[in-house]
Amino acid sequence: MEFPILLIVIIALALVFDYINGFHDAANSIATIVSTKVLTPFQAVLWAALWNFAAFFLAAYIFQDFKIGNTIAKTVNENFITLEVIFSGLIAAIAWNLLTWWFGIPSSSSHTLIGGFLGAALMHAFMMDYHDVAAAQPALGFWETCKEAFTQVTHQSVVKFNKVIPIFLFIFMAPIIGMIISIIITLIIVHLYKRSNPHKADKSFKRLQLGSSALFSLGHGLNDAQKVMGIIGAALIYYHVEMLRDPVYLNIPSADRFKFFSEHYLWVPLVSFVAIALGTMSGGWKIIKTMGTKITKVTSLEGVSAETAGAITLFITDHFGIPVSTTHTITGSIIGVGLTKRVSAVRWGITVSLLWAWVLTIPISAIVAGITYLVVTFLS
C-alpha cells in the first residue's frame, strides 16, 4: 500500500512533534529527582525514557486500549478532517512547542496539539462556507460574506464539545487534583516519619524517589505518546475512509474505527512511544530549572509526594480517557508540597506566569494553525 506524500509527511511531522514533546516535557519527569540530587541529569533522562517506553506495553497488553488517543482523534467532527487540516495543526503545534522550549516556559504540548487541530479544522469549515456563500450570494461584499460564513460555522458542530469540554476543564482540574493529592501524601508521610532520624529518613526517600519518578514517567508516556498516536490515527482513518473508500473501514461504525486502527497499525503506537522516549533522553534543561527550583525548593520527601501525586492523577485521567497536561499536573503537585510548608514557600510570580502560558496555549495554537491552513490551501 502506497501512502500519499502528504500523509507520509504528516506521520513524520507527528513523530517529530512526539520527539519534541519528549525533550520539552523531560523536566516533568526528572526535575524533582535532579533537584534533590537522587540522580544526575543524564541518569535521570535515561531512567525517565525507559519508563516512557514501558508505558506502551501497559497500554497495549494490560489495559488493551488507547483511550486518550481515541479522544484526541475525535475532538473534531470527522466531516471536517482532511490531511491539510492535520498538517496545519501539526505545524502550529511544533512552532509553539519550540518557542516555549526556547524561552524555558513549561507550557502544555498536549494543549498545543489539540489547539492546532481545532484551529485548522475551524478554518477549513470557515473557508468551505465562505466559498458556498460567495457562490450562492455573489452580490455580498467580502465582510458580509465572512460574517455569513462565520454564522454557518457556529451551527455546524465542527468541534465535538463532549470531547473538548473535559479537556478544557482539566487545564485547571489536573493541577488542582495533583496539588490536593500531593498535600495529602506529604502530610501522611510527615506524620509517619515525625520520630525518624532525619538523615536515615532522607536516604529512604531518595530510594523511594526512584520508584515515584518511574511511576510518573510511566504516566507521562501513557498520556502524551497517545496524543500523537491519535493525530496519526485521524489521518490514517481519513485516508482509508475518504480517499481509499476502504470497505473494511467503511463497514465499521465510526465510534469503533480508532480501536480497529490501533490493532491494524500496531506500529503507530509503538513508534509513538519510542519517539517520546528518545525525546526525553534529549532533555530540556531550561525547563528543568524552572520546574525543579524556581517554583519551590523541593526535598526528596517532597519529590516522592509530588511525583506520586502526579502519577496518580495521570493514571486516573487515562482511565477516563481525558488528555491532560503532564506539565500542569506536576506543577500543581509541586505547588502542593510547597503549600504544606507555608504559602510563601511557593514563588507565586513564577506560578502566575506559567498559568498565563497555559491559558494562552490553545487559542494561540489555534490561530497559528488557522493561518497555516490558509497558506497551505493557497499554495496547493
From TrEMBL:
Task: Please list the GO terms describing molecular function.
Answer: phosphate transmembrane transporter activity
Q: Where in the cell is it found?
A: Membrane
Quote the InterPro entries the UniProt record gives. Answer: Phos_transporter
Primary site of residence = membrane
Protein's membrane topology: Multi-pass membrane protein
Q: Name one Pfam family in it.
A: PHO4
- This protein's GO CC annotations: membrane
Could you list the residue ranges that cross the membrane? 46-63, 83-103, 167-193, 266-288, 354-376
* Top-level taxon of origin: Bacteria
Report the PANTHER family cross-referenced here: PHOSPHATE TRANSPORTER
Q: What is this protein called?
A: Phosphate transporter
Q: What species does this protein belong to?
A: Chryseobacterium taeanense
